[in-house]
Amino acid sequence: MFDLLLHSELWLQIARGIPITIALTTLAMFFGLILGAGVAVLVNSDNRVLNWTGETFTFLFRAIPLLTLLYFLYYGLPNIGFIRQGPLWDVFFRYSFAIAVLGFSLNNAAYLAEVLRGGIKSVTQGQVEACKAVGMSEGMALRRVVLPIAFRNSVMTIGNELVATLKATSLASAIAVSDVLSNANSYGRIFSDNISPYIAAAVFYLIMVGLIDVALGAIRKRAAM
What we know:
By secondary structure, the protein is mostly helical. Helices cover 78% and strands 0% of the residues. The protein has helices spanning 8-15, 18-43, 48-63, 66-76, 81-84, 89-93, 96-121, 125-133, 138-153, 155-168, 180-191, 196-224. Helix 7 (96-121) packs antiparallel against helix 10 (155-168), helix 8 packs antiparallel against helix 9 (138-153) and helix 11 (180-191) runs antiparallel to helix 12 (196-224). The relative contact order is 0.16.
């Protein structure tokens, strides 16, 4: 039953999906942080329209299951005429990896916006007043002081979201992205083995999550010094 685990080709085949998994995780976190920071600013705004816009975004993309979002983007958008015939079809929307990055980024942005909203609230009024005292505009204070402090105060929670995103990338196999799980699925179908490939895939996920945990532990120790 577990004979395939002794075959190096199994491990090599599944390992070929690691760069895709890492790239998807990295891009989803990068764009998710950028968009999430913008949404967090909207949510913390005193302007009711901006606040409502931010709140709606976070509710929408936290409420929609990630797999449902990926299916809509991958299978639903091609049925919309101006998307299928638009200029972005050939350079973006026709590629499953690009769709996965979009879906994960939107999902991450909603959760990271909540994280950063708390980080922004952790900035004291005294720090904000100090920015004004040295002549900073509201926008400059936000870019140079408020958001950097918010990121620093939220770094461990962002790290936890990174782990969650890495594990969630396995859902991308449902839209034909050749990640770790997709390669395990393919190998399992070829050899009619529904156990060994998934054990191998789980080992790779354990290693990647373990490396992230080590990095987060180092950050936590440094922050405590």
